[in-house]
Amino acid sequence: MNWKFTPIAIPVLIASLIAIFMLVYTWQRRSMRGARPLLPLMMGLVIWLVGSTLEAMAFDYNARLFWSNFQFIGVVMVPTAWFMFSLMFTDRAAVLTRANLSLLLIMPLLTLILLWTSPWQQFFQVSKVLNTTGPNPYWEWVPGPGFWIHTAYSYLMLIAGFVILVRGYRQSSRLHRRQISVMLLGAAVPWIANILFVVVRVSPFDYTPISFLITALAIAWGIFKVGLVEITPIIRKRVIDEMQDGVVVLDEQNRILEANPAVLRMVNMTEDVLGQPIDDVLARWPELLKRFRGRPRSQDEVSLTFDNGETRHYQVSLSPLRDKNDHLTGQLLMVHEITRLKQTEASLLEAKEAAEAASRAKSTFLATMSHELRTPLAAIIGYSELIQERSEAWGYEKIVPHLKQIGTAAQGLNFLIGNILDLSKIEAERMDVILTEFSVPDLVNEVINNVKPQVAKNNNLLELDLAPDLAIMHTDRTKLRQILLNLLGNAAKFTSEGTICLAARRNNATGCLMFTVRDTGEGISDEMMNKIFQPFVQADSSFTRVHGGSGLGLAISSRFCEMLGGTIEVQSQVGEGTTFVVKLPVQAALTPRPGPENGRSEGAMQQ
Ligand code: ADP
What we know:
- By secondary structure, the protein is of the alpha+beta class.
- It has four domains: 9-235, Up-down Bundle (Rhopdopsin 7-helix transmembrane proteins), CATH 1.20.1070; 243-337, Beta-Lactamase (2-Layer Sandwich), CATH 3.30.450; 352-427, Helix Hairpins (Orthogonal Bundle); 436-585, Histidine kinase-like ATPase, C-terminal domain (Heat Shock Protein 90).
- 56% of the residues lie in helices and 16% in strands.
- Helix 13 packs antiparallel against helix 14.
- The structure holds adenosine-5'-diphosphate.
């Protein structure tokens, strides 16, 4: 075989080498979605270019004919592969069913058969003679109808691919537009060269292969500069574009392959960041880069301060992207803006702190005021009793009822202030629990003696149902007394001409004493039931005027039960009556209350 190096082969050779390199590069990344559409196109191009290079260097008729025929494999492959590329790139690969693919391949295969089999060759090319008169031999040939059919088919494929890509261009992002532009340029140049050679016949030389140098360079630029292999198809990208959360895709070199509009809006940036290293894009927030470096998977909250002084907060999660073989191909960054959430959180915290401070101030005020009020009140009560006693002896009986009224009102006020003081002490966590051992029947008798006058006032009957084994209890006697007095006082207040029953039982299994206060009075509505343990809540104001009270008794009783490790429950039916059940441990345990320094202090009592 006669080989000779000719200058005309140089650009084709360079284009071949670039195309081979790109084919190998794309093949190695064939698992990536972007590589697949490129592969058939690159293969066709390589065959065409290699055939063309060897044809240009072969000075022997047979060798030249062989390489000319060989390169036709590429010639017929490229337009069809181009059409397939345009479909796959715009996410229409579903059209390429097996049946459609077979249809697409009929023409290229037929062309090759016509060209390669001698009886049919005539149909493709009427004559083909090698002109060796000049320094660069060339074929003088007369195309047959087969050639024109092949050309028409190829041009049809090229046009269809162009139309599909141009339409995809309109719908895509700037990154995809750059990729599509590169491909359109890469295809347009050799196509023009081909038109000049085949249709216009400006020169006997076919410059199409030489012009593939532009194609190879365009694709190389596309692969290395605009991530042509790593691309995500357009439709998928549209889904990402519509997302409210930010999505950023980084490649192995930490370049930004994808950044959806949401993330660009969040950080006040444009699509210019595409293709740039993330380190450059986020250079003004170095701590941020440091925080995420070397952590392929992480989740964190970050705050960015912008030029206008505004600070925004984000929830960022970083996860690795791997290919089928588990090789790291990049990273996925999901960004969720939480600025408003943070602002609401901060104002809620502020409001909570303000409310707590106000509540503490209120409790301190009440505690102080209660003390201040009680001292003069004690004097009023004491002196009104004294004057009452003396006035009878001095013969001023007339003023006795008025003095009694002063005494009763002052007692009522004293009771109310006592309740307010108790509640404010509980809320300020300053209420002490004093545990003592005492006889339960003794306590019950004392309470009963106290409430008897109240019960009798509304013509009520008082029943006692005490188990014989009540024995002793170890708890805060004063608090238990107050609870029972409250419950029995309420029962007497809200019942008239009915029965009030106090029952007490010991449950050895749970170690609790159960006190039940039952009445046949007014009852409590369902709506009120949820509120009666809240301070200052009463069934209705008109009732209050009849029965008096402040709405504090149950609030205090339920807090006391809690402090003694027990519970209080209520059941009621309007018009039928109410039952309160108090369960308290026979042996109350002391829980240390939080101390000022370490949160807990030894020996201090609960609340
Ligand atoms: P008050 O000082 O008003 O009695 P309490 O906290 O003891 O305050 O009770 C709150 C409200 O619960 C009462 O105003 C009343 O409406 C309702 N209540 C409590 N006990 C009874 C009861 N035995 N029967 C009907 N209503 C009751």
